Amino acid sequence: MENIVILGAGQQGRNCKRLAIENGYGVRAFVDDYVDGEVEGVKVYKKIEDIPDYEGFKYIIAFGEIEPRRKYAAHMKRLNLKGVNLIDKTACIEDGAKIGTGNYICKLAIVYASATIGDNNIINCKAVIATDAEIGNNCNISMGANICGGVNVGDESYIGCQASVVSGYNIGKNVTVGAGSVVLSDVTDGEFVAGAPATRKERKR
């Protein structure tokens, strides 16, 4: 059995551990700055480089927050480490969908044919990535979110629970869309929008 390493030992990390087993992998270790000891019988390391023979494993980033996703994706690139996709057996991935590496796709998610997903993304439970939609890298598409046909979501963006981005509009890089929002216009890089229809809000400091 091939072993993988999960970057993040919190809720998302535990979900990835279940998915890893379902996908036929063992879990060699977790990596997390803020967790000590073991999680569900698996040792937690502070740094990737602390893991013996760390170069020989594949990796999955299991943080919901965008900043640690960005941090670990960059560190994996520096170390020339490979990602692994973990896909729940109840997810529907249509033939023709293009999926990069390092993604985990959760229960009852739907990815339509001709949709494209980059690297190191979370496609959470019941999220829908519709026909011709494109998701960049290091994004979190939260539970029940709807990315409608032809929508582009830029790198390192967070789409909140039950939010919808309507066809004909696009999401830039490093964008946050609040839970339950309905996006009816383009959202430029770095913005935070919320509401129905979604409007620009100030980010909390």
Measured as a percent range, the helix fraction is: 10-25%
What is the topology, as strand order, of the major beta sheet?
A: 7-10-13-16-19-21-23-24
**Largest sheet features:** 8 strands, mixed
Rg (CA only):
17 Å
Q: Report the span from N to C terminus.
A: 45 Å
Structural class: alpha/beta
The SSE string, one letter per element, is EHEEEEHEEEEEEEEEEEEEEEEEEE
Form type: globular
Q: What is the helix tally?
A: 2
What percent of residues are in strands?
Answer: 25-35%
Describe this protein with a few key phrases.
six-stranded mixed sheet, alpha/beta, 2 helices, 13% helix, 205 residues, eight-stranded mixed sheet, globular
Give me a quick take on this structure.
The protein has 205 residues and is of the alpha/beta class. Helix content is 13%, strand content 30%.
